[in-house]
Specification:
By secondary structure, the chain is of the alpha+beta class. The protein is about 50% helix and about 30% strand. The chain contains three helices and three strands; from the N terminus they run ααβββα. Helix 2 crosses helix 3. The longest helix is centred in the N-terminal third of the chain and has 14 residues, at about 15-25. The radius of gyration is 15 Å and the shape is elongated. About 10% of the residues are buried.
């Protein structure tokens, strides 16, 4: 990562990351739900046998981790 990018990202808060992540998931067509102040993306995967699994990805925790990693 170049110094300009790193400098820009170090000023981002977890809320900034969360807005970007939620927006990206929405643009890809994923459902976003909120529960207890956290944003979750609902993702369905289908394995090679055709079985489907519904998962919820906690985007708020992802954003918090990204903010910590770039601080």
């Amino acid at each position: 990562m170049d110094s300009r990018t790193k400098g820009r990202l170090t000023s981002w808060t977890s809320s900034d990351y969360e807005r970007k992540i939620v927006s990206a998931f929405q643009e890809e067509g994923f459902d976003i739900v909120e529960h207890d102040g956290a944003s979750f993306a609902r993702v369905t995967t289908i394995d090679e046998d055709g079985a489907s699994t519904l998962a919820e990805i906690n985007l708020t925790k992802v954003a918090i981790g990204m903010a910590r990693a770039t601080a």
